[in-house]
Amino acid sequence: MRSSCHGKLFGALFLTSLSVPAQALEAEVSGVKGAVAENVATYLVELKASDYARQRLLAEVRRRAVEALRAYGYYESELDIRLVGEKSVERAVIRIQPGPRVKITELYVEVAGAASEDSAFQQVLDDLPLKEGEPLLHSKYDGLRNRFSTLALERGYFEASFTERRIEVRPWEQSARIYLELDSGPRYRFGEVNFEGSQIEQSRLRNMLPFKPGDPYLAAQLAEYNQRLSETDWFSGIGVRPRIASAANTGSVAQAQRNWWEAVDRQSASGSGVTTPESELLSANAIDAAVAVGRVGPPTVPVDVSLTPADRHQFEVGIGYATDVGPRTQFSWQQPWLNEQGHSLNHELYLSGPEQRFSGEYVMPLENPLRDSYELLYGLKNFDNEDTQSLEASVEFARRWKFDNGWIQRLYFRTSYEDFVQADQEDQVLLLYPGISWTRTRTRNPRFPTWGDRQSFSLEVSDTSWGSDANFVRATLDSQWIRMIGNDNRFVGRIGAGAISTDTFEKIPPSLRFFTGGDRTVRGYSYESLAPENADGELLGGQHMFTASIEAQRRVTGNWWGAAFVDTGNAFNEWWPNDLATGVGLGVRWVSPVGPIRLDIAHPLDDEEDSWRLHFAIGPEF
């Protein structure tokens, strides 16, 4: 019985010992500091003492430490290594006398072939990380070599190879001679673009190409085209691939890539002089020469574009909450493509306490789908808040342009019929008015922008001479920005303004009048509660509007931020700065997986009856 128990105990201990991972060797380095000491420790970090006998381990530690020191130009170092631990080695104590450091005494870096006239390669030559008289750093040499390799692939020099690349180290002279020459060969150009799987006519896809067949090859333009196709929402799968192998028609490109990424620093065993030549395949140049024979004009790279159509019907449901409107729900039905011209149709139903809205948008892309399109918008909206009751039906036809600088221009004509009650005013008005708008939005890290801005300006005109029920000129301006100082300080600013010029303000419906107050304008005041009033204290809305806000945020920990803010603004018919309502407050921001969640407590400085107000919202600032 006892022997059985002992056997089971021994077996359990044996299995436990097998499950314990071997510990990495701990290194204690002295004699050098900073990056050099860190590099020695890094070279030893994956070394496991249990894998070696003691003498073998000592030799391996020495070999790795010497290699780590040579990477920083120390070729004549003296090392005193002691292994600590009797039964098993726990750590290595390494005392280093680094000795003199090798410096670069001769530097020869050249680019031959078509790339010799390429500004990108010339920029690398102008900004060489290696300089004569400086200590030898192998990482800088490797970085330069890899930069040439990557640049050649990115810019279409698929037959490039290093005709010379070596480092000659003479430790007794503390000198190093570097020779690096790249023969780029010819630069390939874009060939024909072939499409497969697209439900959209090819002419529209070709109009979005950032290059033309015959243009110099540039890998970044393939990535840009992939992004453009993605922005159309026409496809669920996109592949844009250059057919490099068939373009080269030989193994020279693969050989060139192999040569670029192989290690080149091979040291001789003598130690008297260290030469690191490149082992070349002698047939590579012969193969490249054979390829060039019979070639007419520059070589080309065909591009294959494989596409998978997006689902024709897409549905989304969203729920949320904001202090301004309370709980809200949104249903959307999107049809990203209806036909081979790429027309799209989207519908949306929005429900909240004060507002219920159904809207639709039909988009007809033109020759360049991402830049030019016609838009048909229509909707029905019911709004009931404070002293406003409104039922509005509208139709809008627009021409849209997107410019290279990111600005979007829309020229539109809008028709709306609105049945409204605003305080003691009641009417039904039909408005026919053209308008023009310019907007631009730029952000980095859209979920929680660390930098960005949004600009918007619009101008609308209505006149009874063409059948509209009111004369007016209406203009709005909105500017928002986000900036960071360091990693923990974020600032958000906003300024908005609007004005209506009219001699029949009572005919202007509530949807075009100005109101302020709430989560996105002046915190500390309820939603759209700031505006001119009638004699009974009921809101009428204003002909003019101005708002401004500045908010400073500070990271508390992780995704949690604290905020302090000042908001000011009002809607009015005639105004002066004394008429502005101001609110101040503090808030908390949490960057959740679905976007920022904001909770603020704000105090209105000129409203004694409403001393504090909570504001809650989900989503980025813009």
Automatic annotation (TrEMBL):
Magnesium found in the keyword field: no
The protein's assembly and partners: Interacts with TamB to form the translocation and assembly module (TAM).
GO cellular component: cell outer membrane; TAM protein secretion complex
Keyword vocabulary terms for this entry: Cell outer membrane, Membrane, Signal, Transmembrane, Transmembrane beta strand
Main localization category: membrane
Residue ranges annotated for the POTRA domain, each copy included: 188-238
Signal peptide annotation: 1-24
Localization, UniProt: Cell outer membrane
Protein's recorded name: Translocation and assembly module subunit TamA
